[in-house]
Amino acid sequence: MEENRVALVTGGSRGIGAAIAIALARDGFDIWLNFRQGRDAAATVAAAVMAAGRQCRLLPFDVADPQATQEALEPLLEKQTPFALVNNAGFARDALMIWMRQEEWKDVLAVHLDGFFQVTKLVLNQMVKKKEGRIINIVSTSGQTGMPGQVNYSAAKAGLIGATRSLAAEVARRNILVNAVSPGFIETEMIKDLPRERILPMIPMRRIGQPEEVAGVVSFLCSGQATYLTGQVIAVNGGSYMG
Ligand code: NDP
To answer: Do 83 and 7 contact (CB within 8 A), yes or no?
Structure first.
């Protein structure tokens, strides 16, 4: 019997990752849901996945930790290869460069870049054997244009955009499509402390985006509608940056 297609979503316990996991479950994917510590939040997402009639496997590990990542994924990858991988796990540690501490620089690069490398390498090794797959990296407007206080985060996301394009060129002939989705300001924990009166004037649509509006684009990229699309950065930002 054919198994259901699987989507692995990192950082899927809340925010954008949770919306992506639920959207992909509604599209028919079983979900491997990674997160770091928010088990209760992850269980809520798992319940929504199951309500959509799909299975959800919870995978708590830190994507920045190579050993933990390997221990969590290798046994699963021996049995099944995800069709889609969404590298979404991440956080910001904002500070002006003059005050930025070494750990703030290192931790942000680690979660976005090392995390991408570690998870993707393991999954890609299996995808190339199957000669199919979709990899979607969640980047940010900050990786496309300057944002004060985010030298670390901008460097990480711009790096991930570069990695997206190079990997897309490497694996296109294996029918593995690699793209980046670049959200602007999206209503999640990550931006809860930012003053709205400062943000809204920067957005032509004059509103903050919802996680589901990012998830819809990821859903499209994982679908049969997006078969000739690779190496691109698709912005979901209400017009706040038009690259
Ligand atoms: P949230 O803070 O709401 O959620 C982050 C998720 O990532 C949580 O599930 C968290 O799990 C998980 N996570 C964090 N660090 C790790 C780690 N080391 N290993 C595994 N999981 C981890 O963030 P958003 O939903 O807002 O952000 C999701 C992605 O979108 C990020 O990559 C972010 O940079 C990007 N983005 C967000 C924007 C926004 O405005 N919100 C704008 C542009 C980009 P746990 O709680 O268990 O730690």
So the answer is: yes
Distance CA 148, CA 129 (A): 43
Domains defined for the chain, CATH in brackets: 6-236 (3.40.50.720)
- Under DSSP, is residue 30 helix (H, G, I), strand (E, B) or coil? strand
Residue 86 has pLDDT above 60, yes or no: yes
Please state, in angstroms and as integers, the Cα–Cα distance from residue 20 to each residue in 17, 89, 126, 158, 226, following that order: 5, 12, 22, 22, 16
Q: Is the CB of 5 under 6 A from ligand 1?
A: no
**pTM, two decimal places:** 0.98
Nearest C-alpha neighbor of 181 from the set 154, 196, 161, 197: 161
Q: Confirm or reject: Cβ of 153 under 6 Å from ligand 1.
A: no
- What's the CA-to-centroid distance between 99 and ligand 1, angstroms? 23
Closest-CA residue, ligand 1 atom 6, reads 11
Render 125-192 in DSSP notation, one character per residue.
HHHHHHT-EEEEEE--GGGTS--TT-HHHHHHHHHHHHHHHHHHHHHGGGTEEEEEEEE-SBSSGGGT
Q: Whose CA is nearest to atom 12 of ligand 1?
A: 11
- At residue 109, the 3 state secondary structure works out as helix
Task: Tell me if 143 CB under 6 Å of ligand 1.
Answer: no
Which tokens belong to 29? 């994917």
Summary mean pLDDT of the chain: 97
